[in-house]
Amino acid sequence: MADVASALLSFPPDAQALSSLQHVEYDRQIRSYINVLQSIPLATLAKAAGIQNDLLELLDPSINSLAYIYVLTAQIHASSVKSTKIPDAHRPDGPFWLKLSDFLVTCDPIQMRYAGELWRRLLEYIERITRFFRAPLAGIPLICAALLRLDPMTGTLTSNHLNYIRLCLEARMYRHALPILDNPISGFPTAPVSGATNAVPCADHSVSSAWITSRSGHSDKIEISHVQEYFLLGAMIYLGLEKYPQARLFLEHVLTSPAQGVASGMMVEAYRKWLLVGCLIEGKTPESPRTVNSSALKVLRSTSKPYETVVEIFQNRDMPRLQADVDAGAELWRNDGNLGLIRTLLRALPRFYILNLSKTYAAIPLPSVARLLNLTPSDAHAYIESLIASGHLNGRIDYPIAPDAPAVLRFFDAGAPDGPLARNESQQLAALVAQMARTNELAEMVKAADLRLRLTREYVEYNRRRKGKKGGVGGGGDVGGDAEMADPGLADVDVGDIGDEDLMGDLH
Amino acid sequence: MANNIEQSVYFQRRKNAGALIVRDAPKFDLESYISNYEDRTRLDRLITIGCTSTYLSIDAFHAAIAEAKQGKDTDIYMSIVGCLQQIVPEDPLSMPDLGWVEQRMKQIKAETDRLEHELKQYKNNLIKESIRMGNEDLGAHYQSIGDFNAAYKAYYKMRDYCTSPKHIADMSLKLILCSIHQRAWTTVQTHVLKIQSQSLKAEDKAKIDPILSACLGLAYMATGHYREAATAFLQTKPEFMTGGPAAGVTWQRALLTGNDIAVYGGLCALASMDRAELQNQVLGSSSFRNFLELEPHIRRAVSLFCSSKYSACLETLESYRTDYLLDVYLQGHVAPIYGAVRRKSIVQYFIPFACVTLEEMGKAFSSGSGVPIEEELVDMIQNGTLNARIDLVNRLLLSPPSHPRQDVHDSALKMAASYEHNLRLRLLRLNMLNAGLELRAPKNTNAGAPQMHGGMEGYEEGMAGGSRLRMSRG
What we know:
The complex is a heterodimer.
Chain A: H1 2-9, H2 15-19, H3 23-39, H4 42-52, H5 54-58, H6 65-82, H7 95-106, H8 109-112, H9 116-132, H10 136-150, H11 159-171, H12 174-181, H13 224-240, H14 244-255, H15 265-282, H16 294-303, H17 305-315, H18 319-328, H19 330-336, H20 339-360, E1 361-365, H21 366-373, H22 377-389, E2 395-398, E3 408-411, H23 425-454, H24 457-470, H25 479-485, H26 490-507
Antiparallel strand pairs in A: 1-3, 2-3
Helix pairs in contact in A: 4-6, 7-10, 9-10, 9-11, 10-11, 10-12, 11-12, 11-13, 12-13, 13-14, 13-15, 14-15, 15-17, 15-20, 18-20, 21-22, 23-26
Chain B: H1 2-7, H2 9-16, H3 30-34, H4 39-52, H5 57-70, H6 74-87, H7 98-125, H8 128-144, H9 148-156, H10 165-182, H11 185-196, H12 202-222, H13 226-235, H14 239-242, H15 251-254, H16 258-272, H17 275-283, H18 286-292, H19 296-306, H20 310-319, H21 321-325, H22 334-350, E1 355-357, H23 358-364, H24 373-382, E2 389-391, E3 396-398, H25 404-434, H26 448-454
Antiparallel strand pairs in B: 1-3, 2-3
Helix pairs in contact in B: 4-5, 5-6, 7-8, 8-9, 9-10, 10-11, 10-12, 11-12, 12-13, 12-16, 13-16, 16-19, 16-22, 17-19, 19-20, 20-22
């Protein structure tokens, strides 16, 4: 028993030694430590815990994280051997659950890079408990915190992401999905590239896909259908929260996913939603992103005729026809799960009327607006107030002093300093700075993608051939040198432009 | 009298067809007006006036019949008589002179045969110059009987027998006149370009250039390109009015007079140029001044516009509306040109103001049609002509406030956002490709749908069996 305990506590070295440890050395030590851990029989770990419950008390989850997770999994395993049911002690707020949750929020994320599979199974077990005891309020925040603990950017899409989003959607806890959804996906678990620098998982990586690989065990195998499902479900969550621009981006991710001239069922679903969302944002048929595979798009179009018709009618601002068309297709919308979106579209039509008015008029009496909208004055009043409140309309309703004069709708243009949507100097600056931060973040992702592409076999081959043509001496292995030649690539041109010209220039 | 004419069969039919009818008396005197023109255009202009003006209809048709009888075009004679008959059936001139027609047709037939026979002879002799002249004679003959299609063809056949640039220029000029009579405006433009590319002698060039720019201006105006038309007319040299016949045609009588150039050029410029351009290129042009002197009211209208007296300018133009409606080439363009001038006036009028009351606007631009000024303004704002907004409550027209700093910020944010959006789309796609994630046919085509619903399974089922949770060893 004591042997086991001392073995478990043999890593990590104390804080002082740890700080002086090089990445490579740390990597070597942790790997040998894992070998030690794996040599301890499962039963010993589980029993040691089961009898005295000592090991978990002995270990500090934030320091001895690796050992802790091994013991935890051993205990779970032991309980699952006894019965297929989840033991009551594991229920949320039970003693074991508390240990689990304490571990997941405080564990050392660097050590967890080496225990990918255990980590994933642990998350899956929590998901199981959540479903079994129907306790989404306990489970969902915990999984979210755990995902963020392991990788604060959550930029590498894993099966955990997808499971989590599914869970949020089922439990209708849309808001809890946002911390994960809002982080852009920058990579996927792929086979690690040999020969890449900083290859040890414990090193400082700008993107998590450097250590979440297809072999690290952090994720189940990710297929294209998983990616599409993640983005489609994500879009549905955004739709539920009425965050239309984000929903649109996610749907476009589904539409632009690489396809060899074919479309999946999810793409059809995404296309229909995308048409409606684009119309809600722009008031007209949205322009399809250029990277969509054209033959796939043709398939999508041919399967979504009723949706295209609705959007076209919307574009002509033909309220009676829109109403008729929506009613006629009610069954279809319901079956496709788009009834809510269609109804929103119907409600949004007068908004575009009013926005058009704001281009022509600076102020207009409410009764005239009501007449133009074909609504009663009080309905129109309520509708406009809701538009102003939701920030869709930069306007104000004025009440004249004269008792019998009608109320007046006053429009403000985008830059006017006195409108309700006006932003003052510091807000404007904050918006610019936020955009700049996002852009820089993207620039990092571009650099990472660039690096990954430079390491592909195709690129190395290409470079070798190009060098050969020039009659140069250089061999193929000189990746570093090639990388420099490729510098005027994505990273420097596109992102550099946004960052330097568009934003910096305006801040002066 | 005028009332009777308006009730006549002919004008009733025009009215029903929605065609233009001019009821007011024009400012000009028909006789002195028409005496400026000769040949075909004289006939064209008389017919136009006869067809549209109830006031001058009979006089114009009488003059047209007299004119037609001197010429050889029997078709047009018959159609003029036909029109007159529908207006005043009891008029002695409205009975066609069939004897004259028959005699003329015989003459024409003999003439055609003679000319064709001669041409054949010339061709047998293989003398280029004779063949060219033979074709020219034939063309002139066809033109005089009103068969412009055949005339065009005959003239065009001269092409192979032209031996000098001057010949080609003469031929093209004839083709231009022919095309103008046919209202084939694009052909006019091509032939003008053709002559301009010829290397002519300086004296010929000086003579032909004014004619070319006048024809080009006319062609542009007729196709509605007022700005190009104005430029062409403004380039027309005053020699146009004094030059002798070119290619056997006295252009300032057979097509356009100097007065026409002044009116067309002035109106097109008013419709399409801004104040500075009008000042420099119209009023300040030493050559166009000669034309403007012929039509002082056009000059007045332009200078009123330049000195921002828009309503006076519009009034001046309005008082000549009837005259212009009776002009054969201007007829169809009076409304668009006047509309453009009016819209421009409104825009120019509004520039120095931050806000103007609608009442004031209405006063400055009272319209005869009875359409309230605000509707006109709404139209102009909606089609983007006028950059302003209307305050219906205080009845004001407001100029759009500008917030340049805010606007720059906003546009930067907007652009950055759209860049970001596109970059994210492309980056993810690239990463997916790099990770080998690609949708392939046909195995994976349907993989999506079942997956979709897989995630929605019931809550209590949970994950299958706890035995999945196992330690991994190695």
